Amino acid sequence: MALDSKIPKGPLSEKWTNHKNNINLVNPANKRNIDVIVVGTGLAGGSAAATLAELGYNVKAFCFQDSPRRAHSIAAQGGINAAKNYQGDGDSTYRLFYDTVKGGDYRSREANVYRLAEVSANIIDQCVAQGVPFAREYGGLLDNRSFGGVLVSRTFYAAGQTGQQLLLGAYSAMNRQIGRGKIKMYNRHEMLDVVMVDGKARGIIARDLVSGKIERHSAHAVVLGTGGYGNVFFLSTNAMGSNVTAAWKAHKRGAYFANPCYTQIHPTCIPVSGEHQSKLTLMSESLRNDGRIWVPKKKEDAEAIREGKLKPTELAEDDRDYYLERRYPAFGNLVPRDVASRAAKERCDAGYGVNKTGEAVYLDFASAFMRYGKEQAHVKGLDENDDALVKKLGQEVVRKKYGNLFQMYEKIVDQNPYETPMMIYPAVHYTMGGLWVDYNLQTTIPGLYCIGEANFSDHGANRLGASALMQGLADGYFVLPYTIGDYLSNDIRTGEIPTDTKEFDDAQKRVEDNINHLINNNGKHSVDHFHKRLGKIMWNKCGMARNAEDLKSAITEISQLREEFWKDVLVPGTADEFNEELAKAGRVADFLELGELFAKDALQREESAGGHFREEYQTEEGEAMRRKEFQYVSAWEYKGEPKDAVLHKEDLQYENIEVKERSYK
């Protein structure tokens, strides 16, 4: 199958407008006769389901959580990008487009990213109309802050809970349609296969996670908005339930999987504390606006801190290495995530780490307290030279901006971040890879669409902070509702899709055979036993740095681990009941296949780009070395075992941006 991205012709700034003017539409009366399945109800799926139902389609929405409000989108704390330029600091649609492509290390599709920047301003208006309580400045305009990889303030936020507030907006829009009967909501249901009829996606097989019942659901089109696959590493900032199953099942039915090796390592995560952990907690990137990142200049000071003989607050300013400010003076602490993560790893590997494991750096707000405090003292006519007063006033300002984040840190680490610097270390966060989609967000399976983090389309090799929420809502509110109509216009006379057909029989049998094998296996080891082992292989050999030797051994080790899993996994309970261990087993089985393809993709990409850092391809200064011959999307076709997957390439053309060495200095 040839990859056709279906990018419209014409100037970049006119592509989306011209495309909307020329695609086929479905009239309101015909929309009432068309069914659409939406899997996943986070920001992408929730906004898509609400908008499609508002347009008149009959929507069936599925989520494995007990409510759409529990989608992992709530964890996106820091903000959402949009080029409204309220700050008057030089932002524009083009600059947001440019920053996003550069931040992704020139490995994303120009047309999709420009469209994202173009509709970004509409998202903010939509969310304000829904009542999302964005922060406002004194004059009444929405406030903005800056995030990594940009020189302007374009990130809109609602304290440290932006994702949650945006999700509640989408959820309220969904609820309106549920009340009207236009959305039929299936909570606690997990999609376990895509059903193909005459080469088109015409439904799904889902399992009711409460009763264990296997169900058939048909539709004229299927939309996946199921998030990313960061939990392939076991330890990640993702919710425990986040998984790749829906996307992977679609991949096995014929949807190409693109750029699986592109994983984002987030620099501001609470460090790993021991083997007991099952997930990691992210501290919002917004903290890098005011927090300064440092390690001791001298190894003996770092050792003393690790041994508890020296407190960080006792270290003189001259003995601190603010390494991001030193290495990247133009962007300082607000370099992109991949750059900040590698810099932290380099310092810790060199022996300057500050927690007991040696894998942590400091995020320090002391100077922010004094800066804000002096301003407040000046405003209030108080003594600007009273350091204790100034610090207290400054802490109040920071508490208003980031209070819930500081509170969360103290609860987890049992240290007061107002009195001692936070400790942070990079961790797996977001995945830029996902199902390959064309300009219309359709996969290589006709009638199967993929939106948000589950697709590959907008972020290249590294996502800039606050762009995840932007993409999810752009796809769901403003892109998919247009483009899916072009496909569905051919289905106005199709009628309801029956589920009592051979295609549904075969798909259900595949699902039941898989479940029966897991339940009746009677092995010796738990699901987590295998998941943790997979995670260690992934982190050690496919994590922050990669090399050919490690990747080759990872491929072999994951293949052997998968074979062992199917022979020796133990799943207690039965299939016809609420059985979270069974659900987890199915998800880990898919991770064990994805992990091998991930390593295979990383091995063939002989360059460093964004979050994919090959040790063999770096500059003398330790920065990523991109190679022009890898300026393509790697889209993998399923052929059985991951080792047999076939690579297809979508060449990336840059006509509106000069591809040059990526520098934040």
UniProtKB/TrEMBL annotation:
Gene3D superfamilies: FAD/NAD(P)-binding domain, Fumarate reductase/succinate dehydrogenase flavoprotein-like, C-terminal domain, Succinate dehydrogenase/fumarate reductase flavoprotein, catalytic domain. Keywords: Cell membrane, Electron transport, FAD, Flavoprotein, Membrane, Oxidoreductase, Transport. It catalyses: a quinone + succinate = fumarate + a quinol. Its cofactor is FAD. One of its GO terms (molecular function) is flavin adenine dinucleotide binding. Its main location: membrane. It is found in: Cell membrane. Residues 35-469 form the FAD-dependent oxidoreductase 2 FAD-binding domain. GO terms for biological process: anaerobic respiration. It comes from the Bacteria. NCBIfam families: PRK07573.1, sdhA_Bsu. This is succinate dehydrogenase. It comes from Winogradskyella ouciana. The gene is sdhA.
